[in-house]
Design brief:
Layout (H helix, E strand, L loop, with lengths): L2 E5 L2 E4 L4 E8 L6 E8 L6 E6 L5 E3 L7 E6 L4 E6 L8 E11 L11 E3 L3 E6 L1
Length: 125
């Protein structure tokens, strides 16, 4: 059974940093894309950052220059380093692992895969 377990969320002030981790178990994802999504109250879930099996990265515009996604395939773990946090970053952050191998299409992420339980990130002004 595949499980994704996120950690690292919390409450910070604007301008501070947080680092999220997502540890996967049950299968290896070294040949699959992994990603971070977030959902703020009253809004749809959105893709924040993704990293493909080739280690290519994608960021939503609001995350560019502030967030960094990385992966450690030996630990089957994906990370999201978030710097210069803003109140607009407040959301529940979800880890996603693609069930499809060798998929280079970031636009397909969010379906056909596995989700973590979510971790709350709150940024105060």
């Amino acid at each position: 059974q595949v499980q994704l377990v996120e950690s690292g969320g919390g409450l910070v002030q604007a301008g501070e940093s947080l680092s999220l981790s997502c540890a996967a178990s049950g299968r290896t994802f070294k040949t699959s894309a992994m990603a971070w999504f977030r959902q703020a109250p009253g809004k749809e879930r959105e893709l924040v950052a993704a990293i493909t099996w080739r280690d290519s990265t994608y960021y939503t515009d609001s995350a560019k220059g502030r967030f960094t996604i990385s992966r450690d395939d030996a630990k089957n773990t994906v990370y999201l380093q978030m710097n210069s946090l803003k109140p607009g970053d407040t959301a529940v952050y979800y880890c996603f692992a693609d069930a499809t191998e060798f998929n280079d299409y970031v636009s397909t992420l969010g379906t056909g895969g596995y989700w973590g339980q979510g971790t709350q990130v709150t940024v105060s002004p």
